[in-house]
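Fold it.
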Amino acid sequence: MQVYFLCTGNSCRSQMAEGMAKKYFPDWVIASAGIEVHGLNPYAVKVMHEKNIDISKNKSKLIDMDYLNHSDLVITLCGDAKDKCPVTPSTVKREHWGFIDPALIQGTESDKLRAFRMVRDGIEKRIIEMRSK
């Protein structure tokens, strides 16, 4: 199974999804990318480390059309990626998991970490649900 997680900047949501999916599906080919490149968000790295998942060496990447067209499943994690995702062949299943962008949360360090943890845990829940399909 080849899976592609997409969001706007490939900085947090899709990176967390890639890391989480690799934990639960080590035999699958899993990658993430963005419509744009925003760099890896340090809060995403921090909250994933809390789950013993290291994404610190990940890079923010643009969509690879070859990988996209040969994926079994493409999952968008934000409305922007859903709306701007290139057309895929009919053989590629597409799903949309809408999550807020935790990088947009203003406030204290605690507020930001809470938002990132909420998104991380929501993504983990969806990935666990994939195991029962």
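The helical segments are 13-24, 42-49, 65-69, 79-84, 109-131.
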